[in-house]
Specification:
alpha+beta, Nuclear Transport Factor 2, Chain: A, 6-stranded mixed beta sheet
């Protein structure tokens, strides 16, 4: 009888603890995905200020062309120039592929993206650009901010 009671208590404890341990990152992962969606929405509406607001004050963004903007103000300035110039009217779709949490307040996100709507100076449409980004987020005062985002577009191998 005593062994059975110990077994039942142990099983009940496992039912309570293990789901908590295995799903404890789901709310954080949802918060990162929400932040990515906020970035995507702001970018797609051409709002450089709202797009840059996703970054930490000291954040950085390395673009696929190798350019780097450091600090939220520089990121906003670069986005303002791009979204009113060569990137005007472009749309981005970001898909978080893997999100890891090496610490409670740090997230690493591996994502793929597709950029559409880019045009050559003569107005000719450019095919969709597909690439990858690696982003590090830090939670500050209950909100996640991008500390660094590094993007790349793989070269198409020759035929």
């Amino acid at each position: 009888m005593k062994t059975r009671l110990i077994f039942q208590v142990t099983m009940f404890g496992c039912m309570i603890c293990f789901p908590f341990l295995s799903f404890s990152q789901e709310p954080k992962e949802a918060e990162i995905k929400k932040r990515v969606q906020e970035y995507e929405n702001a970018y797609n509406s051409g709002d450089a200020k709202a797009t840059a607001a996703i970054y930490a004050e000291y954040g950085s963004h390395t673009y696929a062309n190798g350019m780097i903007d450091r600090g939220r103000l520089e990121i906003e300035k670069g986005l303002t120039e791009s979204l009113s110039g060569p990137m005007k009217g472009t749309q981005i779709k970001i898909t978080p592929n893997v999100i890891q949490f090496p610490a409670d307040n740090v997230a690493i996100e591996e994502a793929s993206f597709v950029l559409t709507g880019l045009k050559m100076p003569d107005g000719t449409a450019v095919p969709a650009i597909k690439g990858f980004c690696l982003a590090v987020y830090k939670k500050q005062q209950k909100e996640w901010f991008a500390v660094t985002v590094q993007c790349m577009v793989p070269l198409t191998p020759p035929n």
